[in-house]
Design goal:
Elements: H1 3-12, E1 16-22, E2 35-38, E3 56-62, E4 65-71, H2 76-79, H3 86-94, E5 99-108, E6 118-126, H4 151-163, E7 168-175, H5 184-192, E8 197-199, H6 203-211, E9 215-225, H7 236-259
Parallel strand pairs: 1-4, 1-5, 5-9, 6-7, 7-8
Antiparallel strand pairs: 2-3, 3-4, 5-8, 6-9
Helix pairs in contact: 1-3, 4-7
Bound molecules: hypoxanthine (HPA).
Residues 105-107, 176, 181-182, 198-200, 223-224, 226, 234, 239 line the site of hypoxanthine (HPA).
């Protein structure tokens, strides 16, 4: 067990069954918790620095144990490290984690995926050229990525959306390294290749989580039409503003998901 896992387990007083990673502008999804631990006190957690990302873990106790909300993530584009979230996910896995909920902001490639829409990942395309399992040894690194986004958890997320009366689309997310936004030509390519969303996160975490044997589900809040789809150029300030405005709906969706029976 790592030091971070020891500290988390002590604070949780038992298993952490579910973790929710909150992306840009989405920290308020966590709401009030029972314990707040700064990432600085959790060795191996990101010591983040992107505006719109916080840097603390909130624990909330429930009937099944504990849910951990991660306020902020580290991105590949910060230091070129696709394993930026490995320490955090490994510590959580050592605390009994079974279910990982990933959230993020994204650009909508399809015209109907407009700012404010929520989209459940059906699958992803790793277009970054990076992979967090490069350098890992052992046959377990050859992780199958069929149903990477767990079908039972996806069904549970749809039930949650129906219960909370929230429209939830499904789509394929294409991971670009960032931090520059895509060109309009890249976005046209993404659409032709089957992507519905473009973004700069989430995929390395999903890969790491599958390697750890966790079940993964991911929901994105569309903060802008991707470059060239409509309107002007995307901006980080707009991403943060739209994500912050949409966080209440993400919060309602995540709350309903946590209330649904485990699939
Ligand atoms: N591209 C990449 N990442 C993003 C975008 C985008 O248009 N919007 C929010 N995150």
């Amino acid at each position: 067990m790592t030091l971070a896992a020891d500290r988390l387990r002590a604070a949780a007083g038992g298993d952490i069954h579910t973790a929710v990673v909150l992306g840009t502008g989405l920290a308020s999804v966590a709401g009030d918790g029972d314990v707040v631990i700064p990432y600085a006190d959790l060795p191996g957690f990101p010591q983040a620095g992107v505006s719109g990302h916080e840097g603390a873990l909130v624990l909330r106790r429930d009937a099944r144990g504990c849910v951990a909300f991660l306020l902020g993530r580290a991105h590949y584009y910060e230091h070129g490290d696709a394993r930026a979230m490995a320490g955090a996910l490994e510590a959580l896995a050592a605390c009994g984690l079974r279910t990982l909920v990933l959230t993020c902001a994204s650009g909508g490639v399809r015209a109907h995926l407009a700012p404010g829409e929520l989209v459940l990942f059906s699958d992803h395309i790793n277009f970054s050229g990076a992979n967090p399992l490069i350098g890992v040894s052992g046959d377990a690194r050859f992780v199958p990525m069929v149903d990477a986004y767990d079908p039972d958890l996806r069904a549970r997320m749809h039930r949650a959306a129906a219960a909370a009366r929230i429209d939830l689309h499904e789509g394929v997310y294409m991971w670009f390294s960032g931090p520059s936004f895509e060109t309009p030509a890249e976005v046209r390519m993404a659409g032709l290749l089957g992507a519905d969303l473009v973004g700069m996160s989430t995929v390395p975490e999903a890969i790491l989580a599958r390697h750890l044997g966790l079940r993964v589900v991911a929901v994105s809040l569309v903060t802008n039409h991707a470059a060239g789809v409509s309107g002007g150029a995307p901006h980080h300030a707009e991403t943060k503003r739209v994500a912050t405005a949409g966080a209440a709906r993400m919060r309602a969706l995540v709350a309903a998901f946590l209330q649904q029976d485990e699939a």
